[in-house]
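Good morning,

Both structures are done.
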Amino acid sequence: MTLAATDTPLVASHDAVLLDLDGVVYRGGEAVPGAVEALREVREARLAFLTNNANRPPEAVAEHLAQLGLTPSVEDIVTSAQAIAGVMSHDLAAGAVVLAIGGDGLREALRARGLVPTGDRHAAGLAAVVQGYTPDLGWRDLAEAAYAVQSGLPWYASNTDLTIPTAEGIAPGNGALVHAVRLATGQEPVVAGKPYAPLFEETMERLAPASPLMVGDRLDTDILGARRAGITSLFVLTGVNTLADVVNAVADVHPDFVGADLAALHDAHPAVVIADRVAHCGSARVELRDRTLTVVTEGTSTETLRAIVGLGWACRAESDVHLSVNETIDA
């Protein structure tokens, strides 16, 4: 696979921009530098915010974004809690009682779909167990989930991200907690969050865009999910995965476009020309030297990143060896 190209600003080719939140728009409570400014410059495309984090209800997410300087409506926020609640409402009878291991966002999403969340594993008529992220979750919660799953109840999970980016670094995500229950039970949950289909299906149903663009910082969720859904993707370097991760990624998680941050929405993305293990993109020149992709001449950040990634993918297609990167992009 090669990178897609456009000689006009990337956002001009799309009527909706679907944005991951953690690691793309903000880290913890703080905005990613430049993210708010870049999103304010989007004029024609609708912005939607897709998050695998099931902890907060959409109203709280919208309020957080408003505090950062954005103006989303609640309908612009799509959470994995909403997506898994939608899946469960199709599987379970209306009014079914569900053991909910997670935050307010998960419980509110279940109620909105006609389900009854409880924290009591012994509640009468318990029909299923669902697991979502909350920073307050402890061992007892995981044990209760495991006991419920072992009893034969169907098990659902909002998402399986192993990590979550925060203002202080990378922390364990819901996937790490789900894995603890998996180890205890030997069972697999039904999952709604990226890269699985339900979160994208929920978003497409709300927006009905003709040409959506997914923006994410994780290859295994944002980019893989977009590829499975047939949605064009932009990878940004402000969250979990690194440039070396992208260069060495398998084809299934190759993004269509790469950028240092959300400012890449407003950049042209010139074609990458490769010959004799040298790549040119705009003013950027990158060479392969002893398994290291080396920037010889910088262009714009987007041009330089594209030259690095384009050359890396081309070289790995010839010989599947791990490549390192010697570059000076600030991201």
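Second structure follows.
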Amino acid sequence: MLSGTRVVSFTHFLQGPSATQILGDLGADVIKIEPPQGAFERGWSGPDAFVGGVSVFFLLANRNARSMVVDLKSDDGRRVLRRLLDGADVLIESFRPGVMDRLGLGYEELRTTNPRLVYCSLSGYGSEGPYKDRPGQDVLVQSLSGLAAATGAAGGPPTPVGASVVDAHGAALGALGILAALHGRARTGEGTRVESNLLSAALDLQVEPLSYHLNGFRGERSPSGVSSRFYKAPYGVFATADGYLTISLTGTDLLAKVLDDPWFTGVAPADEYARREEVNVRVAALLAEHPTAYWIERFTEFRVWHAPVHDFDDVATDPQVRHNETILTIPHPEAGDVRVPAHPIRYGGERPGLRRVPPALGEHTREVLGELGCSPADVDALVAGGAFGAQS
């Protein structure tokens, strides 16, 4: 869908590369600009997860892209980059605010020679304001945004979510903003600047509970483990005789039937929120009497909203996950077959596929220089000058 759209990416860590990968999945020609030592994510991976010496953290967010090594402090490097950016459709960057301006690659500078450029900046907190120079990282923003404080049982510590959900949502918002700007440019002929940040993404993730709170509804974390401060019980994870099961939004009239307990008929629908701790404790005691399989069969019969609690081994073999083809296998020349989540959306019944494996450092530097009109001799001279990496 984005075939013919050139995206130049100055991104690192997770938010920026993930946003860029969405565009690459959709067919854009993504050129990842890397320093001579390589992007951060090439040398780091959460649990030291390297396959064949290749970072899984790099592999999960850099497919369908080309890699070009450029020393951004080099005059030759910046000069060639300006030529590349003068013909680009999109620039996406995730440096701290002010870095691109200091390099002479800020939006106001570039728009003078390429007014059609869509310029996307992804940061931790925004390009201005008191936090603009703070390190923007997922778990820090989960804490700052109230997400960690909202998670877990009353009396327990604030609990971050067990995944980089803010990075992932920030990436999706960045890609959404770029697509909107490209659509607007098709009508006006003018590019624009797009900005998103992790703090805004974290608050957007909490649009429902935050809206309740801002309008005077002050929910508290539940001592009995209700998963939300603002929902009636039962809502959350309950222990069974041999495992766990999640129940969602089931009225007391139905609970009386499915749990075969007339106590629930004494809780009027209007009192379900006020008495949610009583309901939760009662449900928890009853579920502990039978194994998970028993409750799944019973809840299915009564059409109670429920789900088993899966770990990642269960997820990888789940029949719906397999049917949806949600896991993509990347045949990497060094790492071998690597499995990662695929592009999450289908278009016309088809999911975007793998056009390029995540690239080696500087793999396409010479190729891109040739596309900019440099002769082989010019390319050799530029590389020899050191601005484009010894491995190019």
